[in-house]
Amino acid sequence: MGLVAYFDAASTEPLHPQAREALLAAIDVGWADPARLYGQARRAHLLLEQARTEVAEALGARPDEVSFTSSGTQAVHLGVLGTLHGRRRAGRHLVTGAVEHSSVLHAASLHERGGGTVEIVGVDLRGRVDPAAFEAAVSRPDTGLACLQTANHEVGTLQPVAEAAAACREHGVPLLVDAAQTAGRLPIPEGWSVLTASAHKWGGPAGVGVLVVRKGTRFRSYLPEDERERRRVPGFENVPSIVAAAAALRAMTVEAARERDRLSALVDKIRRTVPEIVPDVEVIGDPVERAPHIVTFSCLYVDGEVLLTELDKAGFAVSSGSSCTASTLRPSHVLEAMGVLTHGNVRVSLPRGASAAEVDRFLAVLPDVVHRIRQDAGVA
Length: 380
Hints:
By secondary structure, the chain is of the alpha/beta class. The chain has helices at residues 17-29, 39-59, 72-86, 102-113, 131-138, 161-170, 239-277, 304-313, 333-338, 356-376; strands spanning 5-6, 66-69, 93-97, 117-121, 143-149, 175-178, 194-198, 209-213, 281-284, 294-299, 316-317, 345-349.
């Protein structure tokens, strides 16, 4: 990518070298239908089940609890709606945090349109739900499911999953945990009943999601039944991509401790330095209890779309947690729920291998970019 520094790993992590190697090998030998009985099919089936075992081990699950989906979003939709469908006699009340990924909130909206009820638990200024408020919500007798992410995808704040899981266990409610931003990077908190994740977030190929349903959790897909993937996910498995996803997760998990500490130190530097070099800026999210690779800040008097475009011209691929631009004028639901500044929002999320030199170059370029935008807007 030349001089371009890729700082958008929260959207998608670059393909891990071991995933690329596994993908190319599996394309040659894992192309057949794993549900058939001839030689090529048996080979594909073995590859599929080996990948399932590796993913299960990395996520702290049993292989027969793991199903592969076509995306993390599909895993969330199936997890939320399938668990609610399986527990419809227990109750149709859904509890979720206010800053969950849009896939959770969209599934919640569909559930509500179908006659279910939804309770959204608010967050503090750092983006974390209050464990006491979460427990009060799940204590409602007709609660069928609760949802909570491990870490927020826009600001990086870790959620109190352990406390939420204890509350859910106390009230007999299954907890769905969206681990998209931390699988392969941080240990998965215990106590969940359903877990979802997305392979391209940990350096696997796009088009592979993971849905894990613990034994004993009532689950029934709301889609027409299919004999594949434990009858949870319809459709032909993409065996080569699944094999590559497992290879990436295995590699990322091995590298996690070293990369976690290194990237976290770089993020700390960004969090500390940006307010010192850019006036009227707010660094968002928890400074300590956070994902190791994500830092978000907002610049007052700056159009977010213009800022991202100018940073791209300067050689930095970053994203925004906010769609508050000249065309939409609507902030992200995460920043809105937190009650923080949304103008000129930048999310920097560092991939494996991101260097200190790239971060230093970013910090050297940022003040002038922000100043020029403010100057052009007449506010500098």
